Amino acid sequence: MPSQLVIQKLLYNFKSECRAECRAGMPSQLVIKNYCTTLSPNVELNVELECRASSSFKNKHTTLFANAEMNVELECRASSTFKKHCTTLSSNVVLNVELECRASSTFKNYSTTLYPNVELNVELECRASSSLKNYCTTLSPNVELNVELECRASSSLKNYCTTLSPNVELNVELECRASSSFKNKHTTLFANAELNVELECRASSTFKKHCTTLSSNVVLNVELECRASSTFENKHTTLYANAELNVELECRASSTFENKHTTLYANAELNVELECRASSTFKKYCSTLSPNVELNVELECRASSTFENSIQYYMRMPN
Question: Which residues contact 146 (CB under 8 A, 6 or more apart)?
Answer without folding.
Answer: 120, 124, 139, 140, 164, 168, 172
